[in-house]
Amino acid sequence: MSSPELLPVGARTYRATTGIAVLVVCAVLSVFLLGDAVVRGSWGLMLLYAPWVLLVLWLIYEISVVSMVRVDEEGAVVQNVLRRTSFGWRRVTALDLRWQLDFALEDGRRLSCWGGPGRIQSPRMSRGGDGVKVPESLRTLTEVSARWEHAVEQPTGADAPIRRSWDWPALAALVVIVVWAVIAIAVTR
Question: Would the CA dihedral through 185, 186, 187, 188 be positive or negative?
């Protein structure tokens, strides 16, 4: 039984801790490579190289930044690369921390959260309320479990259905990059 005063307030988003740093490093490298193509070649040459560099940057962005878990008092939203799943807390039958945070949903499926907290993360320790050091992933599991237990105890709310959808803006960006790559291939032949 979780006490309401110990629950985190508001929505909380969990992602891979190094995702944005990896993206920034790769973006800087991409700008350098495309700038080098302009300096050593031409703007036209850079436009032929750009879709390939952007495709790699898009993949890194999708894998390391977009994948995340967002929890609030009503439920959770899990995005694993291009697939987004949202559900109310009452749709959760079990919660576990295997390699990643893992939800068992009432429809019988298990949902692993690729961008959320996991055991692989660095062994950072944080001080709990009593001054004891605990791994960050276990502290996160405790926070998410407390939200789940508290929501299930409430007489109303937190019963949103399980919804699965695609990340349409990311897919549109991928289509643009692929079309650009096809045009680049057609121009060079």
Answer: positive
